[in-house]
């Protein structure tokens, strides 16, 4: 049985997110722009959905993404499957990257 990390979800989100209810349509002329918190939630949901989808084919998945901001870089991450396998794979990748640059 796989172990999920705290905060990770192996269950895909169904139904409209908060931002989907703001879409323009015949009865809604122009949606208001997303707040920063809503955008972060939307991007986290996107990563979670893809991690879960990939998890259907792999025993563990860890996605790490960054977004350049005016005041720095924002990090996003999501995972599915065995948490300890995710950590091990990330650590092994990092060690390999560091060794290849020496």
What labels would you give this structure?
flat; 102 residues; two-stranded antiparallel ribbon; alpha+beta
What order do the helices and strands come in, and which of them pair?
Blueprint (H helix, E strand, L loop, with lengths): L35 H20 L4 E10 L2 E10 L1 H18 L2
Antiparallel strand pairs: 1-2
Task: Note down, in words, how this protein is organized.
By secondary structure, this protein is an alpha+beta fold. Strands 1-2 form a two-stranded antiparallel ribbon. The protein has helices at 36-55, 83-100, and strands at 60-69, 72-81. A hairpin with a 2-residue loop joins strand 1 (60-69) and strand 2 (72-81). Helices cover 37% and strands 20% of the residues. The chain has two helices and two strands. It has one domain (20-100).
Short characterization:
Helix content is 37%, strand content 20%.
């Amino acid at each position: 049985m796989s172990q999920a990390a705290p905060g990770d979800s192996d269950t895909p989100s169904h139904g409209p997110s908060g931002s989907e209810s703001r879409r323009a349509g015949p009865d809604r002329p122009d949606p208001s722009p997303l707040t920063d918190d809503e955008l972060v939630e939307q991007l986290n949901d996107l990563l979670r959905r893809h991690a879960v989808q990939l998890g259907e084919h792999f025993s563990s998945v860890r996605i790490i993404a960054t977004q350049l901001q005016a005041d720095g870089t924002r990090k996003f991450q999501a995972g599915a499957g065995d948490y300890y396998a995710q950590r091990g794979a990330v650590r092994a990748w990092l060690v390999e990257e560091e060794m290849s640059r020496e």
